[in-house]
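Hi again,

Forgot to attach this to my earlier email, sorry! This is the prediction with SN-glycerol-3-phosphate bound. I've pasted everything inline since the attachment limit keeps bouncing my files.
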Amino acid sequence: MKKIVMACLVIFMMTGCSIGEKKSAVFPDGDFFLVGHRGASAYAPENTLASFGLAEDLGADYIELDIHETKDGQLVVMHDKDVSRTTEGHGDIETYTLKELKSLSIVEKKKDKTTVIGPSEYLAVPTLQEVFDQFGDSLNYVIELKNPSHYPNIEEKLVQQLKQNELIQKDKKGRPRAIIHSFNEKALKRVHKLNPDIPLLQLISFDEGEEAELSKKKIEKLLSYADGIGVSYEALTPPFVNYMHEKGLAVFAYTVNDPETALRLQAMGLNGIHTDKPDLLGNEK
Ligand code: G3P
Ligand code: CA
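Structure tokens for the complex follow:
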């Protein structure tokens, strides 16, 4: 008996999990999602169909992508609101029509090397619909509302598009087909009001060197609209993760690119990590 108790204690110390912990009802227990951050952006130009396709091949459970709106009201996938870092163009996305945006070559800057590619079918700025059409139900999606205050009604458009693509539901493994996350609390609350069935993650940024901590008041507030949080992995500690789980909030970490950290976070009981390298744990399909 003593031996069993000792073994349990060792497992508890190794995993940082508490007995009887409650995890978010939205995310199946024991799952550890690998979320391809902007696709497989360590290996292919970020937020392109090429990058998402590679993320799928490398075993990502989800792809993470950032959305904005064009001058003619189309939802498109790009990280920055200004096109100049990732394309040959200049200026804000909202000043481009979809056609103009599609005609831009993709620019990839890595260390001292700048490569100009395309535009081609897989290496161009994709619309959100093109991503859904390309990957259908072979992938699940984490969609970030970027700079939502610039785009009146982007939340309505996104919810509508998720509905049309039958993404407000679970897959065969019981995982949500689509999750929305954002640093913008107002936008998430708006989505929650439009459709409370869409899983929402509040992105939170802690200062460098700061340990993750949230007041009871903040947690109560989160529970009124969100299913979990996304936090920079450096800030996470086992007691914080356990506390979030006890409260019923899922915890995701960004952006993890080395296997040791990924395994440490998995042992901490995280619900998933965002990574530029979906193959970091050797899960290639
Ligand atoms: O993975 C979380 C992340 O998407 C938030 O940061 O700047 O990469 O969009 P960013
Ligand atoms: Ca993002």
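Residues 37, 64, 66, 79, 144, 203, 230, 254-255, 274 surround SN-glycerol-3-phosphate (ligand 1) (CB under 6 Å). DSSP finds nine helices and eleven strands in the chain.

That should be everything now.

G.
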